[in-house]
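Sample 1 of the test manifest.
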Amino acid sequence: MMELTIDRTGDALLIRVEESRIDAAAAIRFKDAVMEAVAGADDRVVLDLSRVDFVDSTGLGAIVALLKYCAPDIRLDLAGLRPMVEKVFRLTRMDTVFRILPAPGQVPSGG
Amino acid sequence: MPAEDMAPRGTSVRSRFGNGGAPAGPGRPDHADFAVRLSGGEIAVRRTLVHLRDRLRAAGVAESDNYDVELVLAEVLNNVFEHAYHDRPDGWIELHVRVAPGAIEMHLIDEGHAMPNLRLPTGTLPDAAVSLDQLPEGGFGWHLIRSLTDRLSYRRVVAENRLEMTLRRRT
């Protein structure tokens, strides 16, 4: 089972991934764990990836699968992508599919 | 600690470093800063990449270049185990990585099935501008490999696949 921290802030269920890699070796565990966690959501989930420093194409596929799993009743947003993780989303254009937020608790930098 | 000491059951990673670290044999690179032979699929891939990341960092490779190498190798190594060795769970891959002043050279050898038509996949990106239920959950791998490498070469030599990739150091 993948380690997740689950919290509720306002209208959203906040799920933080506590492992550093969402890769081919972790993708199925990751997907199963998040699917179980979103059962407690109303209509919005924020998946906090601020502790994740590596996502490969299998991990990315799992995150896309979760977006599709949640729809249409639950909206899944991502938060706290590290630059290297954001790069995978950008190179595959999946950054256009997700709403990507700053890490929860972080004030977006101005300018 | 040698990598094999950490290998869980069913996987193996052997690695040697420095001059002469590459397993000897005809057609093998005569020098590699990092040489490893791995088997056991995605768990062995992860262990190899985590280890290589530390090696490259110690060799002075910038974090962003190191990350690109890690992502490219994750995609190719997992592809070999998933496709070339789809019917051979005991398949092995030999990985050689050389850090040169301006580039990082990667050389992979395996004895799995050949690439279809002896060609590397084109890496066409699946369309992201589709309805949500049509979104792709895969097919990103070769696009990432091609986006992040500056030179790619594939040859079938007797019963082996030989893949050479060069990534120019950007930082």
